[in-house]
Amino acid sequence: xxxxxxxxxxxxxxxxxxxxxxxxxxxxxxxxxxxxxxxxxxxxxxxxxxxxxxxxxxxxxxxxxxxxxxxxxxxxxxxxxxxxxxxxxxxxxxxxxxxxxxxxxxxxxxxxxxxxxxxxxxxxxxxxxxxxxxxxxxxxxxxxxxxxxxxxxxxxxxxxxxxxxxxxxxxxxxxxxxxxxxxxxxxxxxxxxxxxxxxxxxxxxxxxxxxxxxxxxxxxxxxxxxxxxxxxxxxxxxxxxxxxxxxxxxxxxxxxxxxxxxxxxxxxxxxxxxxxxxxxxxxxxxxxxxxxxxxxxxxxxxxxxxxxxxxxxxxxxxxxxxxxxxxxxxxxxxxxxxxxxxxxxxxxxxxxxxxxxxxxxxxxxxxxxxxxxxxxxxxxxxxxxxxxxxxxxxxxxxxxxxxxxxxxxxxxxxxxxxxxxxxxxxxxxxxxxxxxxxxxxxxxxxxxxxxxxxxxxxx
Amino acid sequence: xxxxxxxxxxxxxxxxxxxxxxxxxxxxxxxxxxxxxxxxxxxxxxxxxxxxxxxxxxxxxxxxxxxxxxxxxxxxxxxxxxxxxxxxxxxxxxxxxxxxxxxxxxxxxxxxxxxxxxxxxxxxxxxxxxxxxxxxxxxxxxxxxxxxxxxxxxxxxxxxxxxxxxxxxxxxxxxxxxxxxxxxxxxxxxxxxxxxxxxxxxxxxxxxxxxxxxxxxxxxxxxxxxxxxxxxxxxxxxxxxxxxxxxxxxxxxxxxxxxxxxxxxxxxxxxxxxxxxxxxxxxxxxxxxxxxxxxxxxxxxxxxxxxxxxxxxxxxxxxxxxxxxxxxxxxxxxxxxxxxxxxxxxxxxxxxxxxxxxxxxxxxxxxxxxxxxxxxxxxxxxxxxxxxxxxxxxxxxxxxxxxxxxxxxxxxxxxxxxxxxxxxxxxxxxxxxxxxxxxxxxxxxxxxxxxxxxxxxxx
Lengths: 459, 459
Fold this sequence. Notes:
Two copies of one chain form a homodimer. By secondary structure, chain A is of the alpha+beta class.
């Protein structure tokens, strides 16, 4: 007869960290047991809320000793179940680690604790006229974004979290604390463990602090909304822009369904057709020149300007509309849950990939607006699942599976920015068929007992 | 009594690959036994020159079976002994793998074999008005640059090899072939093995193919040479530029000794003082505006323009002068060998780091011009060792050791772009003291028998 380690480990954690850090409150267990996805979860044994790297190390040491699995958690905005807990696990909730440890304005980096939110960091950077633009439109923790290798609308200009993390403090499975990278802007010293932990979704170690790259706030921005006669034209315009001297800060594709959803939700006024939202940044003169150059190029692809904005408030409002896409989409079917897809393909393959997917969608009865970080070849369907409609859920998963196969056949990836979590394990294995054994060897080397976020990424 | 595996392994390699691929010619053994550094080497057992990933796999399989160490080699331009061979090893010379496999112009990537030279790739890209700007000024192989995590003068704008490799084909220690990454521009799928192999200097696997990021050739460039009254002013000007809306394509620091060396070597005419060479790229109007904005900023730091260039030939000539720094420096002392240092620090720490190093140099009798990729905080001393002067070599190594300690104390790294090889093992261990065990675990996981480039990086 095996004895559950639960009471012993909880007692020891409480003794080590203090009662305020360890909770088995049923409401908290449920709140912290899952992200924003449709993936399954069970309430964990407890939620531990450390306030320092040292407390995380202590937690890992104790859980390692008791062989209790640990599921690290940031702000819980994941879309593939990466932070979902099992009944035998501890939720290691890093959301109370919210200290901005250092802003090195002249050196363009900041070191923050894992629970610092993107909005919090950007608020602190404003006084320096600096920003941390990497990451999704939704607010999220720096640690969670790094663990997921997140990106978002600004990746086309500033890169993803991969290009914006210089160094990490990581607690390993046994509780040892390591520092990867340095505060130098580049390095050829030793193995690049920083990038190994970025995107590992808490399965190799727990990110407790991150040193991230900062960027100057542009003097000026100019944004525009452009209507296109076809998807092909939209993508060809973007490719032409990327191959020119234009520097796009953002370039987002909205399909006709998305535009329709936005019109109903927030009074968006663009015509219901394939739409590009663009932004240029720089000096005031530069953004005017860049926008004019884009307009000239756009004419070759029969693009029509619907709207432009240069005032900060106007630009902000325009992009807020874009960030409303998810709630706007969900509002199309009251109570519907969205199943978000996330493939990324070489840009020239986008039209074919999207058109084949739209044809596939037509064969079933699912509403699925599309938005795309088109400059990166990454796009999302938000397939709306009416409440309680299991058949719709099954269909949506089949559509997603075929979409992933399509993207992989085109040299793409099954996830551009949402991560693997629970939802993409099969596709990830297909994508990295030859490299899977090497990934497993790395996992076994760093977490031999398999205690860190078990069942995620590799499965 | 142990029997040397040499005759058996060479026979088997010759049978498998053909006589033309395996050589024990003494001249070739010596030529391929070392890079351009001062580090020690021994001729290897043989030089194997494969023409395909399959032949590399076959080589690794046979060497693995015989437990013979393998030292992968690109174009041999390394500066820390990363490709230097030992007497019991096989040199795996990838320089004959020179096929450009695919140029995806619209998707801004190319897939090439490891031995493709940067110059060869850029020549092939010219027809597409694309370029591969990452990497050093000296011509080098794509595989070698990736293995070293190289960078160079354009990193401030385009990033290092880390930011410019999308995917790799890698042969592991046992001869298995894996593909990392994808041709999608970004991905959150699985562990980032691509970045693990980039900079691993052939100690984790042999890079046989790389998919790299391409960039448009700018419509126009404008370059300038500026004289500064002090190092502090030069660095403060660069920091101000980096925090502004300026986009520097290159920004190089040359100290007074370097300028003096260039004047003697190639008729460089700039005044003998701290000097910045800058370049801006974009449309013709943009480069004029950016340059004018830089000039305005430069006035605040008492910078005086010595020269400017906009015609392609003039710009090319101006930057060729910069790339002549190494031969120009060596020419200062006939027959001298340069010991190149390579620390990288947060940019604001550059003046202190360089000035302390100059003071340290004054205490010994060594000539050591300095050049710096100042936008990245990376700089090089070329300490000139008169032929046969062992005392100078000892002094130079001591200077370098103190320089590394200084950089690490400032939050920097012991190598910004040259790699660890043999020469930086001690400093790398100091720099990554907490992460060393994790690095060793990764090495043991991927190369349990320790056959890949033994003694390099980790030691």
